[in-house]
């Protein structure tokens, strides 16, 4: 958070063994796990490149027909899709007509591990939404509510450039906190925090040494119960 960050232990030495430096509680059931993905960086980036060769990034449109500034793709059994008719999960990539690429073990295992340490044991993601942000991209406040089971958490992995993450309340008008997210950070939220509004205000800082002037966000979800 921009003003004063209160660090709290998770009560589990899993992240200490993985080299995690900080755990920041941003809600009753929401955690920012600083640098958790760094130990898996090489495998994640290699697997990401393979997925995007099969299902390239593209600009989708909002429910109102406005072109999104972020580019998206998906992997896993279900991919998140958007059109003027609304938002939905689909087993088929509408651009290719083929099933989405399988979710790599590196992404699935990271999501399960992060969720378990944040108090959500047994999380088995079946969808990974891939969002690419360029310096001019942003994501307005929204809720993740297209899934069938809200008891399942959300796991969000940041790669590349840093970003200002907006963390709101259960109503769009609630006060919004700003959290700095950096390469390798993982945010997990669920339970009473599951339907919080959130978004990305803008990117920060220089281009990333490997990914260049962009940020990749992996959002791991359980789309179907």
From TrEMBL:
PANTHER family for the chain: ALKYLATED DNA REPAIR PROTEIN ALKB-RELATED, NUCLEIC ACID DIOXYGENASE ALKBH1
InterPro entries given in the database record: Alkb, AlkB-like, AlkB-like_sf, Oxoglu/Fe-dep_dioxygenase_dom
This protein's GO CC annotations: cytoplasm
Binding site for Fe cation: 142, 144, 198
Keywords from the UniProt entry: Dioxygenase, Iron, Metal-binding, Oxidoreductase
Any one biological process term the GO annotation gives: oxidative RNA demethylation
Fe2OG dioxygenase domain span: 124-224
Cofactor requirement: Fe(2+)
Coiled-coil segments on the chain, per record: none
GO molecular function, one term: broad specificity oxidative DNA demethylase activity
Binding of 2-oxoglutarate, residues: 131-133, 215-221
Keyword Metal-binding assigned: yes
This protein's record includes keyword Transferase: no
Binding positions for substrate per the UniProt entry: 80, 87-89, 146, 172
Pfam families: 2OG-FeII_Oxy_2
Cofactor details (free text): Binds 1 Fe(2+) ion per subunit.
Name of the protein this chain belongs to: Alpha-ketoglutarate-dependent dioxygenase
